[in-house]
From TrEMBL:
This is F-box domain-containing protein. Residues 1-10 have a biased composition (Basic and acidic residues). Coiled coil: none annotated. It comes from Eleusine coracana subsp. coracana. It comes from the Eukaryota. Residues 338-352 have a biased composition (Acidic residues). Residues 1-29, 312-357 are annotated as: Disordered.
Length: 444
């Protein structure tokens, strides 16, 4: 009896919604009213769960019920992988594009961050909650509030030591500036490898506190050009791209951790990159990437391998000792052979070729590897295995090709800054507004 009454009420409810929707359409009402009549409750949530992330912002604006459905769908089926965000800096214009790994599409960001900065001063702040574009000048440091750089910046005071190529990292609620000081502008007692911590972070206010400089093995490469950086909620990790020397800095305690040469993992590796990895119990882990020239008889010119490293000791995790190699066809697309390369060159010339330069950005779910010297070649997405089981074979669950953003190909002389971050409904609404995102095609 109760079930029959309930079914009758549902039918009446649907009939009323249909009549209201038809009446609205007859009066020139908005077309979403018909969708609202039939899509609600669990049915609506099931549909929204299959909507590409790029369209979620528009779906969330239909009504409060649709907004609740969007948020509920994302809670039940979170989209783990971060987006790849490219900030393109040119003399005449600035633009940005974002790659959605779920739909495999590039979206053009209508706002160019930050609007007041010259291209040479635009940099990136690495952070566990996502990378942020920033602009450094003599008057201050402007940090974007959102990963797409669409919102107004947070203005911080400039670090006490003037820097031209620093590493910036957001660790918890603190911003850390490491190295990159202008040697010609150093005052008495100042160090090119100086480290400063801004206590209030991107929330503004506060000031910079001077800390111990970088360890000795990193001092000769104390600049963002020569260092690969990864930021977590507790630390910022630095790796010398050429030598493999690595260390970490804890801004809460203002102390440096152990310094170790990671190059012993594979002595043939000539370029290194680092990104945050999976958490294991209470310990942080990193994903270490190494690139080396392949043997001449190999089908690809460069071999890229990923290892898992313990965050405390910087020692390789035993289960990852062999590493996970990027598929050769993807590595070849990142580092294609030179068309003018002489097929008759001898083995010594091949081994002495130009060292590959890799760039890495990611979080605990995955990230992206790209050719730092030629970002227009595209990128490779990597997804980390879920769980932290020590016995799990391998670190990387899958690799996938990411085509170059059309905006980068259209501006070959521009300076491309690559970062990655989780992007949700709020970020999409902020970045694209009521106009909605513009998808741009990219050849795979």
């Amino acid at each position: 009896m109760g079930g029959g009454v309930r079914a009758h009420e549902v039918k009446q409810h649907r009939r009323r919604r249909h009549q209201d929707a038809c009446a609205a359409d007859a009066d020139g009402g908005a077309s979403p009213s018909l969708a609202e009549a039939y899509l609600y409750g669990d049915v609506l949530e099931s549909v929204v769960a299959r909507v590409p992330a790029a369209d979620l912002a528009a779906a969330a604006r239909v009504s409060r019920e649709w907004l609740r459905a969007v948020r509920a769908a994302l809670r039940r089926r979170p989209r783990r992988l971060p987006w790849l965000v490219v900030h393109l800096q040119c003399r005449s214009r600035r633009s940005a594009a974002a790659y959605d790994p779920n739909s495999g599409a590039w979206l053009t960001v209508p706002h160019a961050p930050p609007p007041h900065a010259t291209p040479s001063h635009v940099r990136l702040v690495r952070g566990a909650r996502g990378d942020r574009v920033c602009a450094l000048s003599l008057s201050g440091l402007a940090v974007a509030r959102d990963p797409l750089g669409a919102a107004a910046c947070v203005d911080l005071a400039a670090p006490a030591v003037w820097r031209v190529d620093p590493v910036f990292a957001a660790v918890g609620d603190r911003v850390v500036a490491l190295g990159g000081a202008c040697r010609l502008a150093l005052g008495e007692g100042e160090d090119a490898a100086a480290v400063e911590v801004h206590e209030s972070g991107v929330g503004g206010g506060g000031g910079w506190t001077s800390c111990d400089p970088m360890p000795e093995p990193l001092r000769d490469s104390a600049a963002a050009t020569w260092l690969s950086a990864a930021a977590t909620e507790r630390r910022v990790y630095l790796v010398d791209k050429a030598t493999g020397w690595a260390s970490w800095f804890d801004p809460a305690s203002r102390r440096w951790g152990p310094t170790r040469r990671l190059g012993m993992t594979d002595v043939a590796v000539s370029n290194w990159g680092v990104a945050p990895g999976r958490a294991y119990m209470d310990n942080e882990r990193l994903v270490l990437f190494g690139a080396k020239r392949a043997d001449k008889q190999e089908s690809c010119s460069v071999v890229v391998t990923a290892w898992e490293v313990d965050g405390d000791t910087l020692e390789p995790v035993p289960s990852s000792s062999r590493g996970d190699a990027m598929p050769s066809e993807l590595a070849e697309r990142l580092f294609p052979r030179d068309d003018d390369e002489d097929e008759e060159e001898d083995e010594d010339d091949w081994e002495d070729g130009t060292s590959p330069s890799i760039g890495v950005c990611g979080n605990a779910a995955g990230g992206y590897v790209y050719n730092a010297a030629e970002p227009s070649n595209g990128a490779v997405l990597y997804e980390l295995r879920e769980g932290s089981n020590e016995a799990t074979a391998g670190t990387v669950a899958r690799w996938e090709w990411v085509p170059c953003a059309p905006a980068v190909r259209a501006q070959p002389m521009g300076r491309a800054i690559l970062g990655c971050s989780p992007v949700g409904v709020d970020e999409l609404a902020l970045g694209f507004g009521s106009a909605g995102p513009t998808a741009c095609a990219a050849a795979h």
